Amino acid sequence: MRFELFIAARYLRAKRRQAVIGVITAISVLGVAAGVASLIIALAITNGMRRDLQSRLLGSTAHVDLMKAASDGIRDWRPLVERMRHLPHVTAAAPGLYGQVLISRGARSGGGLLKGVVPAQEKTVTDLLQTVKSGSAAPLDNPAPTPLPPVVFGSDLAENIGAGVGDTVLVTSPQGELTPLGIVPKYQRFQLVGIFHSGFYQYDSSYGFIRLTDAQRLFSEPDLISVISFKVDDLYHADTIAREIEQAAGPGFQATNWMDQNRELFRALALERVVTFIVIALIVCVAALNILIALTMLVMEKTRDIAVLMSFGVRPDQVRRIFLAQGLLISLSGTIIGLVLGYGLSWIGGHYHFIQLSAQVYSIDYLPFAPRAIDGVLVAFVSLAVSLLATLYPSSSAAKILPAEALRYE
């Protein structure tokens, strides 16, 4: 062990003539540990929120959507879908027809968004039909007309209207039929055959799936679709691929991608991460002030010892390094404790999901944790750097002690 580090470690372990210095040193270690652990946990939560939201979004929605710029829908869509399916970077494509409806069962009703799909193709671009928890989505695969067409609802939507698997629901479309009395809303009874639960409130509370042919009859849109959904081979270049799809489709089409549709959400999460880091880093700054106070008081207590060392030939720069090493040891101890505590609690939270959230507010139903090694490196660097800055003044003061002045009255 180097001489400076040996003396610094001895000073930390030695009994104090003034007990308050030992108390402040302990508080400094605990403060650094609390700040580091809080930063690790906070960053793990923001990473987890981003990861889970992105994962559920990508599982619930297509990577790219192609629509007509006008609102008249896409006609002659079959050859277009087949042609788009063979474009570079496109791995799957599926047609769909959206429509806002009123869903009723008895005295209870609520608004919803029904999507007419070809189930075999829809399952290649989204995972919602594969998250059915009650009943089954298999009846959607049967193209034969039935007296009560099948429908699949999100779990929260089904709960809001009080419907269960096997129940009959009334779906009313605002795109009605023209009669001598004006436009009369069109309605159709459906049988609820399945309930899906994606864990993403936006979809669980408002989405429903029916067969494309049933949707075309309900919305009075024969052989027409409103969107072609795509799955691509590179999520993070979906914007570039969307432009290529738009150009390949020809004039009058407009393509959007998952990044554009959720840009504000992920921008808010990134800003929250930065703000969280800055605010919680103040805990480390407070702990660094405690280190400054503890070392300043220690220099005052050890003035005679420093003078004796310097009279034996210890240079001022060595004295400076003694107290720099002491501050570094305090910071290093707190940082290690904080890292162990932060990663330990983050692992427990991520493994057991013991903190539940309101899905209506946060879109997900539990608090996710996703600790990353790079965050630990960044937090440790910030902690050690701030603590090192706090040791500059007391170490410089110790190096300026004059042995003759310090020992004059001893």
TrEMBL record:
Q: Which domain of life is it from?
A: Bacteria
Q: Which Pfam families match?
A: FtsX, MacB_PCD
Work out whether the entry's keyword set contains Transcription regulation.
no
**Major localisation:** membrane
Q: Name one GO cellular component term.
A: plasma membrane protein complex
Quick one: a GO biological-process term for this protein?
Answer: lipoprotein localization to outer membrane
Enumerate the InterPro entries for this protein: ABC3_permease_C (IPR003838), Lipoprotein-release_system (IPR051447), MacB_PCD (IPR025857)
Q: Where, by residue number, does the polypeptide cross the bilayer?
A: 20-45, 274-300, 321-349, 369-393
Keywords (alphabetical) are: Cell membrane, Lipoprotein, Membrane, Transmembrane, Transmembrane helix
Bilayer topology reads: Multi-pass membrane protein
Q: What is this protein called?
A: ABC-type transport system, involved in lipoprotein release, permease component
